[in-house]
Amino acid sequence: MTEAILLVGGKGTRLRPLTVNTPKPMVHAAGVPFLTHQLARARAAGVEHIVLATSYLAEVFEPHFGDGSALGLHLEYVTEEEPLGTGGAIRNVASRLHSGPDDPVLIFNGDILTGLDIRALVATHESSGADVSLHLTRVEDPRAFGLVPTDPTGRVTAFLEKPQTPEEIVTDQINAGAYVFRRSVIDTIPAGRPVSVERETFPDLLAAGAHLQGMVDSTYWLDLGTPQAFVRGSADLVQGRAPSPAVPGRCGDRLVLPTATVAPDAKLTGGTVVGEGATIEAGARVSGSTILTGATIEAGAVITDSLIGAGARVGARTTVTGAVIGDGAHVGADNELRDGVRVWCDAILPNRSLRFSSDQ
Ligand code: GDD
Ligand code: MG
Questions:
Q1: What family does the entry list (predicted)?
Q2: 174: Cβ below 6 Å to ligand 1?
Q3: What is the C-alpha to C-alpha distance for residues 51 and 24, in angstroms, rounded to an integer?
Q4: Per-block average pLDDT, block size 10, for the chain (360 residues)?
Q5: Is 10 in the pocket of ligand 1 (CB under 6 A)?
Q6: Domain of residue 317, residue span
Q7: Which of 203, 289, 316, 330 is deepest in the core (most CB within 10 A)?
Q8: Around ion ligand 2, which residues have CB less than 5 A away?
Q9: Could you tell me if 62 and 171 lie in one domain?
Q10: Same domain, 8 and 146
């Protein structure tokens, strides 16, 4: 049996002001809390036991996922009193693992949407005999990630977290946030204090001559660090670009959840999700967007690549592009909201308050 640790800590503040009291892993993507996709994908790859290592708003996970049996999993929860960092969080749950010292243990960052072939990563780990194996992906701008150069055999030669200088950017291969650790390696991480696996554990292991193996591929991969990425990821799940067994219903251009109301002439495209109890009124056009539970899009509004929070309302003829509207906010009629704007939860924007276009 393969077991896994899912890291779902961190501050999770980057989705604010969309969600004040909902940690990012619980924000819905393609109709279910994002974390469901990671859990379901792990299960589909044969993982049966998962320990959730949490530090922030941890109390929301267990009431929702329970013992994991609904997903065919045995789930356990461990909450840190103070955030222990990625390495500290892994070490902190070691006592919950059932694996023997040489067994492979999977570890996942909790904010990644990917088509990773999990079984292939474990197979790479076993055939290479590595101490730790890492999923790597290539990105255009690697500065926000951990850089992982490898030799021609795939063996990791360095780990450079968030490079600061141009000289440090030695590769476009980055840490994609999924690892296989040999169980006994987890036990070497110091206990009881914050440890960063990226800044401390990996560099120390390399310095000590340990074998870290990289598996580079070009499968779907997205870090959900920003609301824009979150909306993109949700749309990709709905359209089937990002594979997940947890998407409710068939993949297609739109996902309308039960109890949502959509006017017959409203147009929903580009992987749009309409949440439970949400309303899309006549003539509205919604593309590539996520409309959360109970939100209302009034007649003739045009929503593109945006996240509309739970219970929020977007007024008639208002256009919203690349924006985040917080839970419970009311945006009046005939407004124009553009790229990057975030409306706070419960804020009220009167009719005809904002526009970008010039006078006709
Ligand atoms: N339990 C717990 N405790 N989890 C934590 C803690 C903590 O103190 N700190 C971070 N995590 C979790 C986060 O919730 C996330 O799921 C994961 O560990 C990675 O932390 P982030 O804060 O999201 O790191 P990052 O996105 O800046 O960088 C990481 O991910 C990149 C890929 O997206 C690094 O692993 C990079 O090397 C990597 O390239
Ligand atoms: Mg992250």
A1: Belongs to the transferase hexapeptide repeat family.
A2: yes
A3: 18
A4: 88 52 78 95 98 86 95 96 95 97 97 97 98 97 96 98 91 97 98 97 98 97 90 96 92 94 98 97 98 97 96 98 95 96 95 86
A5: yes
A6: 253-349
A7: 289
A8: 111, 225
A9: yes
A10: yes
